[in-house]
Amino acid sequence: MALPKSVEIVEVGPRDGLQNEPQSPAAAVKVTLIERLAEAGCRVIEAGAFVSPKWVPQMADTAEVLAALHRKAGVRYPVLVPNLEGLERARAAGVEEVSVFGAASETFTQRNINCSIAESLERFAPVCEAALAAGLRVRGYVSCVLGCPYEGAVPVARVAEVAAALRAMGCAEISLGDTIGVGTPLKARAMLAAVAEAVPLDRLAVHFHDTYGQALANILACLEFGVATVDTAVAGLGGCPYAKGASGNVATEDVVYMLNGLGIESGIDLDRLAAAGAYICAELGRPPASKVALALAGRAA
Ligand code: HMG
Ligand code: MG
Hints:
9-stranded parallel sheet, alpha/beta
């Protein structure tokens, strides 16, 4: 076991989580959530998405959120951009990091961003080029790395191919998304190992949805392989509007608790994190999907 000494948590709750809420909270609530996450020690917080408001209305207020946000020094606030129009909007909002998002499944790509995989890569190339020329950091996502809601099994070679293409465009980091949370530990690790043949491991992140309750086990398997960047969402918020039945991302509270137990540093204060989760759950009117958050709340009561 070669566990990393520290792990960078990429908190995606304000984007991946809230993009899937039928009743999107007000921009001011999103701002408070993001600020509380930063206060809890989150150093990377995905703050929103400059996507078509017709496709994902929940993210239509991202510019408003960023304008109101007090950005904390040392904290990064990336946003999703699907095309040049998104990049323009992100730059106008003073963003320093953007993410393009592709997938290893043709059907998912079509449903999510209305084009083929090849067309998506053609579309991302000028986005990456322009973002890099403007001095922005670019992250790339690959969805459906362990299965697709429409096509089922996805070949790992296809995942590696898309990841390598994004890396070649200058993405500093590639996040491997188990969009529908179907992966299990050995499959997750084998997928990671295959991608690591094409993209250096220190450029890879893992992004697990917890639909089948496997996310923590999958993360541990990937940490043992040496990955040190993990995407999570406070309170286990989320899902994906183009992956029916996908539940939220693995809860940040659960991952931080596990990292603490493993002696791996994340820089995040668990109690303050859970308080941020309790805040957004109260706004959404439902309990957190995090066992750790529920346990901490029970202990406090
Ligand atoms: P399209 O309809 O093919 O695009 O959508 P278009 O270029 O023909 O534009 C149609 C309209 O959208 C036009 O407006 C454009 O101006 C507008 P109209 O002339 O009709 O009034 N438009 C935009 N508006 C604002 N910002 C933009 C933008 N682009 C076009 N950037 C498009 C193609 C990619 C735009 C659309 O499919 C889209 O926005 N998709 C986003 C879907 C999305 O956000 N999905 C969730 C994120 S991915 C995810 O959750 C997975 C992840 O978490 C990893 C994992 O779990 O696996 C990352
Ligand atoms: Mg996701």
